Amino acid sequence: MSRRGPIILARRAYRQRRLRDAVRLLPLAGAFLFLLPILWSSPEGNVTATDGIYLFAVWLGLVALAALMARALGAEEELDTPPLSGDVPEGGGG
Questions:
Q1: Whether the Cβ atoms of residue 30 and residue 69 lie closer than 8 Å to each other
Q2: Pick the residue with more confidence: 84 or 64?
Q3: What pTM was computed for the model?
């Protein structure tokens, strides 16, 4: 049995994998946050306005977080994509 050292990934690849993992967990976190008002019901009854504001804030936060993650993933993939051979660099086409 051969003993191998730890597998060390490049920092960019590691960050991209962790970001993709976070994107995959975002729907689960959203479902948990949407169902959370069920757990905090008070003896007087539910306050619909407060729950509505909470749900809207969670929804808005999830949309913003997803947009930021998509932008970060797009930027990472853009760095990894080599330019096409027919592309002319900026300022060099003439």
A1: no
A2: 64
A3: 0.64
